[in-house]
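[Meeting: bench + compute handoff]

Bench side (C.D.) handed over the final construct sequence. Compute side (W.E.) agreed to return the predicted structure before the next meeting so the bench team could plan truncations. Sequence as handed over:
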Amino acid sequence: MAKINGIPTSKDFRKHIGRTGISAKFKQADQFIDAILAVLQNAEYWRGINTVNAIRPLRMVRMACIQWMMNNQNGTRAARPKIRDLCDAVHLRITTLIEANYHTTKDDHETKKWKGAMASVHDQIRLRRGGGVGRSLDSHYFVERGTSSHYAKPSATQAQAKYNIARRNGTGLSLEDWIEQVLVPQSEEDPFNVYFDNMGTVNGMHLQSLKTKRVKYCSPEERGAYQLTIRNGIVRDASGSPYHTGSKETAFSGPGWAIYVVDFDGNFYSESHIVDEFHHSSFLSGAPVQAAGEIAVNEGRVVAITNKTGHYKAGPRELKRALQLLAQYGVNLGAVATNDPFRAKDKWFSGLDAFYADGDLASLGDGRMLKPARIPA
């Protein structure tokens, strides 16, 4: 057969599997083989082309081969090893093209290392500005912050584990390129792991998350839409209207609540929590925060506040800082129900008690306030 990079022409492969001449008359029609021959013909020109444009037509051949395998999982079919060999050759060519065209060079690695180091330096500067109060993004969300796509944690965790295997096997791709160019296509082409044996694929739920669920990271201009101003105890949104969380919602506390963060200039930002799309990390693009949690506000009046955030794991000091700033802005802490779901679950105290306890609600014993009623929409 006249092969290029181990890939035959459609005409030659038809002969190879006995789909020409007399032998073809005795073979049962097979729509999946017909599909392989059709996409192989479309890909013939691209077998020797070294650009990214060759990847898509070759992927169509690989997908057609996998489709045949999915529908002919009985290993006794005579065509099976021949189609497997074709799939192997096409897969090798695709891998070679991807590695050549998306390979992360030493300079790229150094640039990313420098950017990572600079981000770390800026993080440390922000934390020092907080006088030891404040939290960096938890390490479990590294992939979310470390890629420009900001993949959501459930799918990113599985992708990271598979990427680590690929790195050990010699891939020169960045995590993001590997996800976009290798993991997602292979998962789409082989959802039941007929060919890839689960080494490069993810399950359907996580695949959809990788493709469609991206955590929003706000630019400085975008975050302005979520910034609150607090004067004389009244909280106002970016439009100047009294802030109201009745129409907002969080995954943890439900309707009537919103998430919030405080930057190192003492600015509050707040919005609804949308799982895998808008988190505490969204406001400041994954940068450290001075405080974070959930908040309930009724027509501009702060009703309740907590330090509930999985992204930043805020502690007593961060809770106290949020209360301290609210007091500075004229909020009556005595009327603000305060909770720490990590250390004093289901126990509510006044913001004033919480402040004088340095945010350590576990030290206050039994709760002294009722959980606030849901803020009306």
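W.E. noted at the follow-up: Residues 106-129 form the longest helix (24 residues). C.D. will use this when planning the next construct.
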